[in-house]
Amino acid sequence: MSNPDVGQLQSRIADLEGLLAAAQGTGSSLPLTDAGLPGRAKIAAMSSEVVDSNPYSRLMALKRMGIVDNYEKIRDYTVAVVGVGGVGSVELANMNRLFFQPHQAGLSKVDAAAKTLASINPDVIFETHNYNITTVDHFDHFIISQGSLVEGQPVDLVLSCVDNFEARMAINKACNELGQTWFESGVSENAVSGHIQFLVPGETACFACAPPLVVASNIDEKTLKREGVCAASLPTTMGIVAGFLVQNTLKYLLKFGEVSQYLGYNAMVDFFPKMPVRPNPECDEYHCVQRQKTYQQELARRKAEEPEVAPVLVEEDVVHGDNSWGISLVSEDAEETSATAMSGETPEVVEGVYRAYERPKEAKPTTELEPSDAASKVEQSLDELMKQMQSL
Amino acid sequence: MSNPDVGQLQSRIADLEGLLAAAQGTGSSLPLTDAGLPGRAKIAAMSSEVVDSNPYSRLMALKRMGIVDNYEKIRDYTVAVVGVGGVGSVELANMNRLFFQPHQAGLSKVDAAAKTLASINPDVIFETHNYNITTVDHFDHFIISQGSLVEGQPVDLVLSCVDNFEARMAINKACNELGQTWFESGVSENAVSGHIQFLVPGETACFACAPPLVVASNIDEKTLKREGVCAASLPTTMGIVAGFLVQNTLKYLLKFGEVSQYLGYNAMVDFFPKMPVRPNPECDEYHCVQRQKTYQQELARRKAEEPEVAPVLVEEDVVHGDNSWGISLVSEDAEETSATAMSGETPEVVEGVYRAYERPKEAKPTTELEPSDAASKVEQSLDELMKQMQSL
After folding, report:
1. For every residue of B171-211, which 3-state class applies, written as one string?
2. Span A78-305: which CATH code?
3. Helix H segments across chain B?
4. Do A322 and B236 touch (CB under 8 A)?
5. On chain A, which terminus has fewer CB atoms closer than 10 Å, C or N?
6. CA of B273 to nearest chain A CA: how many angstroms apart?
7. What's the complex ipTM?
8. Domain segments of chain A as ranges
9. Tens digits of per-residue pLDDT, A252-266?
10. Which residues make Cβ contacts (< 8 Å) with residue B383, sequence separation at least 6?
């Protein structure tokens, strides 16, 4: 074999340089992300300066608008996100979601997600852990108590994004034990409803306080799933529920607005049930009941310390309690309820349900509305719902 | 200068091949996207087969779940998306949104968006047009009447994602003239509220039917904007409003669920006002009034054709009319209302507003709720609101 010609080698180098420039974005001097594409440089301090080169100007504008007192504080917080849709590697079937990109097929889901996120915002520190939290060994590993940026402190919040009961119960147990505030989230098997729930051990219901059917009857979850059938999933529903989760995370961490204790989403009719969820004193979860006792003692202590002349303010410090806005609850159809129960969502039908508004009898030519005075009461208790589900 | 050494050239080639492989994802045989990364191959027909290599299995599962009759139909539709946040090139300040990636800085926004989207789903055909729709010349160009996949037919839907009144009014005029169904969307200047609106010329209110303050008083929008101040923007709020827009687009095109005529989002308290929006017979927009007349004639014709024994069904074919669910409307705070009005959102406070639910006096140990019978009426008419805004 003869030596390669210098001209051929130089031509090959020019070709490769061209391909590499194309792959990386032509003529860019930006640092490369791990995908080999140019990303932006890290930014040491968040600025509110209105210049094109500042990616934070529109978030920092929230301060000037009077929405958030101190947006920079976001940099001090640590959030543990549990679950990116099951342990495993990224498959094409996951590619209907923006999180995973085709060239990442075969990577572990946590690594693929971390790489995508790091390329979007290099200022965030990502730490990945890839294991099953539901086995006993791994549960010991599931340490959220040391994850803070401040040495030895717990994380500021846990976000549950898992897709099964067992994992939710593992997170619930860990958070009750540690007194860790967390958000639970989920989308139904038919992809057209979802919810988020805010859980403060002792103060709000834990995940076991109002147990869904599968957990309550100790049925093996796997026996409920149909063989060879995959659940539906809609990026729109997932995006909206994820939006609710992150928006309420921002409200909780940055202390603006009101955090919703339970917020549901029914995509078919754009209905959003919202309600406070109180803890169950007879909850099966040992640490939940202990946390409830501690919380009640704390409330009693605070009340005792109040000056006698002051009006009685119970739960004075519960910033994120009930909302001052209207809440309306209406029944879902039976199919939806059953799908919801099977996929681990809190049943959204409770006792004492009203329609807040009836359609006016005649079409009106303007945009003004006159609600009917007679609200129709939908009677369906949680007990009845449980009976219906058990008979299925 | 001496000739380069063959060994050096070969070493350089090996380095470049390594860098290129890293930039493109190692050892992949997938087709390259325009960013030089491996994408997935096009898929000729959508399949519901549950295999890891099928990115459509979880969307097609919506058929088996009884949600959507024919998901494949999505491939026949053409949607015109107007606006990706202002004409211009992509700047770092846009990078707080997932749509634009750091290596795209300097591209036009429509091209950057199209490239990102094409790399996510190569099965969608993207056609980009980059111009200002509000100038007369460009308005003539703004042809949505020939955009269908079927030669000579109009697009199936127009989505307005523009950020100013002038552009909304241009789209409104074009759609009224063409009888084109469209969705309008927007996020407030303070980034914590937003809305979508469904507009069917003649059947629902057009964008000029209930004119917001700026349009009504013919004020130049630019004089309302403060110098050197940029509006706040939150990816969460934008993501949720975009989710509502696309979810309702899917419901409209694939004929499932109910399309919301007006759906608002208040992030501070997770409140979602929803209402039908009827056309104004005295609307200033010439084609809107013409469309209303045609629609009323059509309704009358249908009514006349009904068999005499049948019950009177007015608007029989209006699939996406009012919903059968509760609707509750409550007032927003004054600041929010004013920001909303300035950024072009329909005022969400209307006459006759009730609280559907009052917080129970005592905390309950379970998750069951008992709504109070006494609903407090919030009295604030649209007229009062307009007066308040005019006095600002």
Report:
1. HHHHHHHHCCCEEEEEECCCCCEEEEEEECECCECCCCCCC
2. 3.40.50.720
3. 6-24, 57-64, 109-120, 136-141, 165-178, 213-216, 221-224, 235-254, 286-305, 334-342, 382-390
4. no
5. N
6. 10
7. 0.72
8. 78-305
9. 999 999 999 999 999
10. none
